[in-house]
Amino acid sequence: MAKYIVKYGRDDRVKFISHLDFVRCFHRAVRRSALNFEFSQGFNPHPVMTIAQPLPVCVTSESEYMKVGFVTDMSDNEIKDELNRRMPPGFTVYAVRRVEGKEIDLTKINMAEYITEIECESPCDIEKLLNEKELVVPKKTKSGIRDSDIRPHIFELEKLGFTDGVMTVRMTVSCGSTYNLKPETVVSAAEKYIDGFSATFCTSHRKSMLIDKKEIM
Amino acid sequence: MITLKDKILSKVTKPTRYTGGELNAVIKDPKTVDIRFGFCFPDVYEIAMSHLGLKIIYHTLNTRPDTYCERVFAPWDDMEQEMRKYDMPLFALETGDAVTHFDMLGFTLQYELSYSNIVNMLDLAKIPVLAAERSEEYPIIYGGGPCAYNAEPIADIFDFFMLGEGEEQVHETMDVLKEWKKEGKKSKKELLERLVKIDGIYVPSFYDVEYTEQGTVKTITPNNPNAPKTILKRVVKDFDATYAPDTIIVPFGEVVHDRVMLEVMRGCMRGCRFCQAGYIYRPLRERKPETLLSLADDLLSKSGFDEISLSSLSTSDFTGLPCLTDGLLKITEEKKIGLSLPSLRIDNFSLELMEKVQKVRKSGITFAPEAGTQRLRDVINKNITEENILQSTALLFAGGWTNVKLYFMIGLPTETDTDVCGIAELAGRVLDVYFEIPKEERAKNINITVSTSSFVPKPFTAFQWVGMNSREEIIRKQKLIKDSIPSKRIRYTYHDNKTSYLEGVFSRGDRRLCKSIIKAVELGCKFDGWGEFFDFDKWMQAFDQTGIDPDFYTARERSYDEVLPWDHIDVGVTKEFLMNENEKAKAESTTPHCRLECSKCGAHRFKTGVCTERRGADNG
């Protein structure tokens, strides 16, 4: 029995899968594989598996993490290849690393980087947005929708381009259990604070998840 | 890149219903195939993906390099609204391409209440609903499945029907279609003339129906020299060797039957007189345990499902059951896979088997006595006794089970109030059985549920002539049961009588009903099997506006000399046999099952399965 950190991602083909459906999907992939899960003890044993941060529906990613227990003789690389063979098309496992104890603590993730495409008639003035002292917008929390100042949670925000009515931005924002800022909330702040800016649709790609600004693996 | 599909799918519930791309879904380049085929299931994804027939036809057609079979399902209401808003036609899941100009669409007809969805799907696909209005540029549309045996109410919509088992027919059909397409798709009529030569294919436009002054069918006459007078259903002769997929699509979202289904048998030998499946799938045929074990191994290892279920009409009648379950338990225990055994009969119910299967949780068990008194059980030929029921439940309670569901039908032929109250009384005696077990030996919190549905007479059953109870009568009987339930520990639930009524109209309907269905869809009817959509008043309005009296189809008792709308269809079981069974029902006389004695139903013509087995009492 050993614990592994798995770094994986998903593309457009499978981006509409919900978090819970992904968990089941991964369970089935392991059942199809030469790997064996480590099962929890107790009356109703289940695979030992923790996903760092749920990926919202309609978001693609190249930087997801989970911690999972396998009973296997395979090397890290062999596990990676086996998972890639067994996952449905659209998922990629980038790396697998066997870890001891709290060597990598996924609960410490506090930042994520996104590439977001925003459908809008004209691009928004990013600098002006970042110059605002506070950006107070309604935000979903555990206790319902509440106004929250998201400005302290935007670390980077830059425009990458604007073509055919789609503005592309890159942003680094708070992510994790303490404070989780979604790209669409940033877009809603731009709509509120930048006069004349209105987005009709946006879609995001999670480029990285970081612990204290450092890549996890 | 932002796509229209992204925008639409971000707004709807359960978007993976529409994305395709599941594990084991077949990916082909449409440019490399001759035939684009859509397997259409007129219900939502979760229902469609639980259907065994879909899995068989989908995978067998896709073994052909010349054919690409894709899945086409009814979008849920939210998705339909988005599709209509953006003018997105009905699409196939694999490629996302519109089905408007596919070569062929095959609808599976599983229940009458899905007819409105067929019309709605064709409308969404921008395909003319009536076959006569579809030129060669549109797909050839056929229907198959149990409702195809009397598909007269939707006959005007379909170019043809496949009667019986499709495993061989679909391939023969593709061969003909491919030829016709190569020759330049000359005329649809000419294609149908070629298709009708395939055994089991019924082309409704090749038959004229005339009606009597009383409104019953007078004659059904072929109007095309190629059309046979009667169409005999198709049966696969060697069921053990018949194609069964060794891989299945694994849905992303949860579906109704989220598990591997292993079809152990086809057909049923019991001959319950109300049961259409029991007659139309005759004769009973089995797969060999070793064939099934090898299939199970493949299906589980290629899908990763953690549950497997045996599929058949009456699993306890499977001769290889002990051998199969032993073999399966070896696989399931090792891989922590759940095994479920539905459709066990109450009479030869084996507690030992249940113990083996349900090691941890003792979940609920459903029994189907179907009727409350022995007299009525004899009428319907259920061939189980009250003693069987009480003994089995005693074993269950002693074994630790506490959730027992008893399933009955009300409105059965010859039923009296004594029979109706008998349902509540039987449930009471089951509860007594529980209390007779010493307190320390029985599990706590007994939970008995009595569930009733209303009997709907079906074509090709012994009861195809009988009148159906009115809704008022059903409601009265439901109340009678409710008032006779002897204990608060017995819960009573019943099925909605309005949907049963509609089912009754269509199951024995004729071609004149088609206009009512189309009208109902115009009025907004769809997903009639779903409480949140079913609108009885709209249906009544549709009947009214199209000059149909629905009671004509439900309430009326038919005489034996009446021409029935499905008399040109031959399911193997003869009309004479069914008449005889109906008479025996009236006389409260039972008919032995096929392994005890051949009752000469007519299915021996197929020369396979139980009809060719050696018979004797010891085989029962």
How would you summarize what this structure contains?
The complex is a heterodimer of chains A (217) and B (620). Chain A is α+β, with helices and mostly antiparallel strands and 217 residues long.
Percentage of residues assigned to helices of chain A: 10-25%
Q: End-to-end span of chain A in angstroms?
A: 22 Å
Mean pLDDT of chain A: 95
Please give the order of strands in the largest beta sheet of chain B. Answer: 2-1-3-4-5-6
Fraction in beta strands of chain A: 35-45%
> What's the Cα radius of gyration of chain B?
24 Å
Structural class of chain A: alpha+beta
CATH topology of the largest domain in chain A: Alpha-Beta Plaits
Morphology of chain B: globular
CA radius of gyration of chain A: 19 Å
Overall 3D shape of chain A: elongated
By CATH, the architecture of the domain at 4-232 in chain B is named 3-Layer(aba) Sandwich
Oligomeric state = heterodimer
Task: Identify the CATH class of the domain at 4-232 in chain B.
Answer: Alpha Beta
Q: Fraction of residues of chain B in helices?
A: 25-40%
Cα distance spanning the termini of chain B: 65 Å
Q: Structural class of the helix and strand makeup of chain B?
A: alpha/beta
The number of helices of chain B is 21
Helix run count of chain A: 4
Please name the fourth-level CATH homologous superfamily of the domain at 4-232 in chain B: Cobalamin-binding domain
Overall pLDDT of chain B: 94
